[in-house]
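Ticket 4471: requesting a sanity check on a complex prediction with fe (ii) ion. Repro inputs:
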Amino acid sequence: MRITVLTPWEEHLFWIGILEDHAQFVLDHLGGEETTRAQQAEQFRTAFKALRRRLFSLDRTLPVNDPGLVQFAQEARSVAYAYYLFEGELQKNRIENTVTIQLTPAYFNGTLGENEEYLRILHSYGQGRDYQKLSLYRLLDMWLEDQLGHAVLLSDHLDPTELGYIDRSRRFIEAFQALALQETSQNRRNLNY
Ligand SMILES: [Fe+2]
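Returned structure tokens:
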């Protein structure tokens, strides 16, 4: 089997697109009275869009230690980290019921987990070196939690008349939960807990 490894440029494109979507989701789910937070989310969305535009001005085959790409990673890191703090605060406020937002604390676990992974990558890219790949278990952990959050979000937004889709989305939720549990017990066995 041939494994294709993403170039640093492609990694940036992948993660910046994800974070831009996250800022959009926050915007879409904030209550009408949350004008300040909506403005902040909008600023982040614009900042990610600007980063993406700037990325397209760089050569997509640049090596990880290219000074232009290193500088880009440092810029992306400051925006991604500021957004991480913003979402973390939203999650805290949501738990304390001090924000009106139709996103759950569990949903934020998934988005914050993705952001953490990009920040980890950026830590290495910002020093001009490649990052240590996650183990398969940690990779599954992150993406299963993320997929579960997406499935819950979808199910929450379906019209009650959409019985077929509600049923299908519930089955996805159960499948992701079962896989996450399986993965946790497998991981525990491997770590000899
Ligand atoms: Fe996601």
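Notes from triage: The chain is about 75% helix and 0% strand. Leaving this open until the requester confirms.
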